[in-house]
Structures are given as structure tokens and as C-alpha cells.
Amino acid sequence: MSSANAAASPTAAKVRKFPCEGCGADIRWDPSASALKCPYCGTVKVITPETQEGVRERPVEAGLRAPRDLGWGAERKVIACKRCGAHTTLDPHVAASACVFCGTAAVVEAPPNQNIVRPEGLLPFKVNRDGAVASFQNWVSGLWFRPSNLKSTSRVTNMRGAYIPFWTFDSATSSHWTAEAGYHYYETEWVTENGQRVSRQVQHTRWEYAAGWLDMFFDDVPVPASHGIPPALAKEIEPFPTDGLVVYDPRYLSGFLAEENAIDLPQALEAAKDRMRGEVRSACVREIPGDTYRNLDVDTSFSALAYKNALLPIWVCAYEYGNKPYRFLVNGVTGKASGTAPYSWLKITLLVMFIIVLVVIFASLKK
Ligand SMILES: [Zn+2]
Ligand SMILES: [Zn+2]
């Protein structure tokens, strides 16, 4: 594998957490082999999970009381971005001079957050760096009206594999709703128009009190927890096949970046509840009898709340052009790609002028 951190230079004080059984070098996750692979001697080691239980949800009360594990379970260096706010963790010996998510050089080394809740699960990389780079080159070549130096500016050496965090929540909900249900009826009214008596059907609404109970179950309501990749951007390379989640093991991170959770469990829980309340409310609206409604009030109680937190694999190429940040993303499992690139207004203006010249020439020929 051409490593995700090929540009990184190991220092003398190199920390070896996962040495190769063959030669003692650092062993890294290889997406093509779906295993750990030594970049020097080629020794392959399959990660076998410590438990056979798979990735399981935890009750929220238990998580709020005491998270099971804190920290990454391996030594990680943290880089804080002053622009997008992402806290990116790297293998300890890897040098980083820019934020992987927004491309800015305004990054500072930060102390690792020891209270970071360890992910329960992770979706391992399946697309390797070569695949992601090829996808980027394809994409850049296919773009029209872009600055000529875009290809050289957006150097693919910036392509990095990063795990971004997200939460999911399960919950049973029971809601009591009250509303005024409106029933339309029509009355004939007589009015005088142009001196003539004419009849008109006028709509009136009769309001009646209505109430009911509604039970709904939610499974895997996602709450993104990344500063580096805003939810709208991550959506463009969805879906992530989360049925492929494996139990977290820090060895999957070796050779890759990982972003610290931007929101903690209580915040994520509130976000999930808001989303569920919204869906419950829409469902209650469908329950109200009559033709229309007003003063809907929904009181929802949540039970059997459970959560898991996991990491999603993304290849990121962040670059600046004219001081503006642009990004290219590849889904680390499916290879789906999306990105933004600047336009060259010079090229667009030249094309428009060329068309105008053609039209003028054509018009003068017809005379
Ligand atoms: Zn080796
Ligand atoms: Zn950033």
C-alpha cells in the first residue's frame, strides 16, 4: 500500500505501538488487504475482535453515568484547526502542517483529550489511497472552466484518509397529543352584487378538541459529530454501509487520521431527541381527524434510549485557491466522490465573448 502518510517523516523518537511480527516496523491498516500490513516486509495480520458480540448499543443512562472507555486506546497526537475547529488525531510520529479538512495552515498542536469517549465501532477503509487519488484526478480532468493551475495547486499529496465521528440513537417514544381539529362546512350567504341578490357558498370551520396517544420506535438515528466535515458535505458521499461496522480497535487507525468527537453524549442526545420529536410531531399531524388543525401540543417521553458512537472512513483532499477553501471527498468504503472547485471567470468570460462574436458574424452574414 502506498501509505496515507507517505509524506510524513519518522523521527528518532518514533513511538511504536503496533510493531510488525516479521520485522518490528510499524504495521498499518491496508484497505486493499482488509488487514494490517507491514509496508516494509509485507507481513499481514488480520484483526480479530476481542469480543464476538459485535457493535452493540449502550443504554444512554449508563453512558451518561460513566463511559466505558475513554481515550483512543493508543498514543495519538492532536492538531487543532483554528478555522474549522476540527481536532484531528494522528499517529504520534506523523508531522502535520495543515488541517486535513479545510487546508488551512493555521493549526496548533493541542493536548490529547483524555475524556474522549472511545468509539464502539468503526467502518474500516476499503478504498486505498491509489483508488482515492485516481478518483480525484478523474474528477479534476472532467471539470470545465476551472483555473489552469488547479491541478498543480490541488496537489494530491494532500489526499489523506481520515475517520470522522458520529453517534446513533435508538429509542422507544410514547407521545400524548392534543389539538383542535377543524371541520369545514359551507353556508349559503346572500349578497347584493350590481343590484342583484346572488347566493354564495362560504367556508366555515368548526373546531373540536381532539387527543390521542402515539407510540413510535426509532432505530439508528444518526447525529454527525464532526467539525471537519459539515453534515451537508458528508451527505453527498452517503450512504455509509453501517451494517459493516466492526468493534473498535485502535490498530485500524494506524496510518490514518481520526477526528475527535466535536460533540459529547449529552449534546448528541439532545440533537437526536430534537430530530425524533420532529418526526413524532409530523406523525401526530397525520393522526388529527378533520380537515385542518390548530394548537397542536405534543408531549413525548423517551424510553429504552440507547446509543453507539462510531467512526466513518473518508478520503479528503482539502486545498485553498485564492484564499478560499475547497474540498474533495471520497467515501472510504463505497468510493463515491464529491467535491467543490473554483471557477475560472476569465475562461467563462472568454467563452461568452467568443459566442457573442460568432452571433454577430452569423447575423451580419444573413443580411
Ligand atoms: Zn514487517
Ligand atoms: Zn480545518
Contiguous helical run count: 6
| Overall geometric form | flat
Q: Main sheet?
A: 12 strands, mixed
Strand residue content: 35-45%
**SSE string, helix = H, strand = E?**
EEEEHEEEEHHEEHEEHEEEH
What is the β-strand count?
15
What class would the helix/strand composition place it in?
A: alpha+beta
What would you note in describing this structure?
A hairpin with a 6-residue loop joins strand 2 (35-37) and strand 3 (44-45). The chain has six helices and 15 strands. Strands 4, 5, 6, 7, 8, 9, 10, 11, 12, 13, 14 and 15 form a twelve-stranded mixed sheet that branches. A three-stranded antiparallel sheet has the order 1-2-3, with no helix packed on it. The radius of gyration is 28 Å and the shape is flat. By secondary structure, the protein is of the alpha+beta class. It starts with 27 loop residues before the first strand and ends with a helix. Bound molecules: zinc ion (ZN) (2 copies). Residues 81, 83-84, 86, 99, 101-102, 104 line the site of one zinc ion. Residues 20, 22-23, 25, 38, 40-41, 43 line the site of one zinc ion.
